[in-house]
């Protein structure tokens, strides 16, 4: 047989069968072994015969006993290659192998399995050796178990090596992989008094340097996940206070950036928003962004700390749009990020498209710009409300769809919503009075209707009500302003009613007290739709008017109609009053004239008598 990869040799190549080669090698081995044994014997006893090296073929013929001896010596893994040479000693083979060998057809497969098994065993041995060597040098223990070959388990004899393996396994199980667990138990064993007396009678305090070291090591494990700590298994990691403090300081470095990343990643804001937030930090307006206060359908609210080093300009000397002097910059801020998805936008457009302040800009803009307008609207409304003395968060800065304002609350704790606040009856009553007065002021002085006023958008802080979430607030001229106001009145009255406050307005009374419009007399069609027919405000004011049933369609400019109507009535009443007064005046005049005439008559009569 010639090799297909080699050049064809000119000289004929001598061929040999694989079995021959194997048996030859094996014969070699046996021969050497025999020689060694003989030499040994000769050195122990007196040599009587000089050793005559046997020919390879002789040895091959009588090699089976010697093979068996070698195998049962059991200091080596059994070499099954002998089977290939056709020779075998049945007494030394395990019964399952014999059984298989009886079946001639299967014997080839058995031989293959045995060889594989031998190979696997050697392979696994090598892995264990590497493992032992590695673990000797390193503090971190590695295991290569997952690379072990499974064939090793087949056809195993009880050898010393196997006993070693078992010991290894036991050792592995006994090893304390999680030293932290053990250490934790040890630390917990120290009672509250702060010391413990051990078996040797020595006192261990909680300030014991050993214990402190272990505790510090444990604390390192609770550093942020992006700080690589290793697993610290299998050995007692101890850290001095000094090292621990340094690590802690290091782990906090760049925390603002990381927190900003975490917060924004959690809420899934887009890259543009992330950039805006990053700029706020970079411009030294904010120091760090701490996390989410609330995620709603339309906006995400984050908590942030302002930068104490803010001077009114950033390090490049640019102004940065902050709406207050540096000394008034609140320490804690709330960042409202308006979501820019289309669905939420559709909900909003009915508030903004009819607001004359945004009329010119509405139709031509894309969604992102409209969301920016929405944020701008919240800013304007907050400022307008603040200007008439209502309690609202101060606006710090507006950047596109990101609005930074004062955080209502202390030390990262947001003030509770009115719905969550625990109020005494007196406080409840105060809150009611305050809200009614605020609604009145808002409508009549700020010329605004909140349009989403409820116990969810009023915060209770320092015994006062704070109004938030005013992006949707509209002016009374807005086509749906009165509907929104009626709904606001309903929300407020319902809340206080549910809380059991007595002597409060009905929603119609509240509406009338705010607008001086009688809900029953004025614009009854519109009001009926909302609170008598039970139509939802969404249905009644749905942006796509084709979807709205005819009977629920909002009237054109109901406020103006109502206003006009009431104006006409007022004028009519005034005219009537005037007429009445005129009539009375005329009457009085007539009376006077009559009196005068009568007086004249009387006088003339007297004169005639005289
Ligand atoms: P949404 O449109 O999601 O309702 P809001 O403006 O009502 O947005 O804010 C949602 C929540 O975030 C509020 O209910 C309140 O708990 C909290 N929040 C909003 N602004 C502030 C602020 N300035 N200070 C403290 N908490 C706030
Ligand atoms: Mg809200």
From TrEMBL:
Q: Which family does it belong to?
A: Belongs to the protein kinase superfamily. RIO-type Ser/Thr kinase family.
The source's superkingdom equals Eukaryota
- State what protein this is by name: Serine/threonine-protein kinase RIO3
For this protein, the record's Gene3D superfamilies field holds:
Phosphorylase Kinase, domain 1 (3.30.200.20), Transferase(Phosphotransferase) domain 1 (1.10.510.10)
The record's subcellular location field reads:
Cytoplasm
- Which cofactors does the annotated protein need, by name? Mg(2+)
Q: Describe the location of the RIO kinase domain by residue ranges.
A: 258-516
Residue ranges, annotated region (Disordered): 19-73, 585-610
Q: What does the UniProt keyword field contain?
A: Antiviral defense, ATP-binding, Cytoplasm, Immunity, Innate immunity, Kinase, Magnesium, Metal-binding, Nucleotide-binding, Phosphoprotein, Ribosome biogenesis, Serine/threonine-protein kinase, Transferase
GO terms of biological process kind: defense response to virus; innate immune response; ribosome biogenesis
Pfam families under this entry? RIO1
GO (cellular component) term, any one? cytoplasm
State the organism of origin: Drosophila albomicans
Which EC number(s) are documented for this chain?
A: 2.7.11.1
Q: Where is the composition biased (Low complexity)?
A: 36-53
InterPro entries attached here? Kinase-like_dom_sf, RIO-type_Ser/Thr_kinase, RIO_dom, RIO_kinase, RIO_kinase_CS, Ser/Thr_kinase_Rio3
Binding partners and assembly: Interacts with CASP10. Interacts with IRF3; RIOK3 probably mediates the interaction of TBK1 with IRF3. Associated with 40S pre-ribosomal particles.
Q: Which PANTHER family match?
A: SERINE/THREONINE-PROTEIN KINASE RIO1
Catalysed transformations (reactions): L-seryl-[protein] + ATP = O-phospho-L-seryl-[protein] + ADP + H(+); L-threonyl-[protein] + ATP = O-phospho-L-threonyl-[protein] + ADP + H(+)
Q: Give the Basic and acidic residues compositional bias ranges.
A: 585-599
The GO terms describing molecular function are:
ATP binding; metal ion binding; protein serine/threonine kinase activity
